[in-house]
């Protein structure tokens, strides 16, 4: 069984989609064994507690520099025997220490069709504000591998979502979550868990 750590910063609806999928038997090769938050007030921590999943909080501001912060995250992940890391609305920056500790073992969900509306400064509602401002008619979500380029790793899954007349950033965000993110992320989790299980059997 592949141990999955989910990293969160906020509401945790994507975490909830993963928990629901696991409970419904849709992630047979993996188990969420840790929820790590960058923010002690993240509602995602309550979702984890309700599902009986161990939690940890690692706040950037407690550490003197990026490297010390990264090392603290790696320590939590190692303590948990993490095999796969899923960034599910994790809005803190991960440095090279974490990325190098888990090469091709970190995935992220981004709320646009990469390479549109991604990279530095594009997170959460800002992504949908930018899409509406540009006037695109289609947006969506992307799950990709995490490397040292923000939103620059290999694309694993994408799904398009229509923009409708009168959309606000909040309305669009919700549609992208419902029609794309909550479907893609559990699917990507199982794809990766199955691949890692197969590699470990070799
Ligand atoms: C999601 O829309 C996720 O795609 C986005 O933050 C939201 C978190 O919501 N992530 C990014 O923008 C990363 N660049 P959630 O906490 O309810 O899952």
Q: What does the model show?
A:
With 202 residues, the chain is α/β, with parallel strands linked by helices. It is 40% helix and 21% strand. Helix 1 links the parallel strand 1 (2-8) and strand 2 (30-37). Helix 1 packs across helix 6 (169-201) and helix 5 (125-134) crosses helix 6. The mean pLDDT is 97. Glycinamide ribonucleotide (GAR) is lined by residues 8, 10-14, 44, 88-89, 109-111, 123-124, 127, 177, 181.
Please state roughly what percent of the residues sit in beta strands, choosing from under 5%, 5-15%, 15-25%, 25-35%, 35-45% or over 45%: 15-25%
State the order of secondary-structure elements, H for helix, E for strand. Answer: EHEHEHEHEHEEH
The percent range for helix content is 40-55%
What top-tier CATH class fits best? Alpha Beta
CATH superfamily: Formyl transferase, N-terminal domain
Distance between the termini: 15 Å
Q: How is the biggest beta sheet arranged?
A: 7 strands, mixed
Short overview:
The protein has 202 residues and is an alpha/beta fold. It contains six helices and seven strands, in the order E-H-E-H-E-H-E-H-E-H-E-E-H.
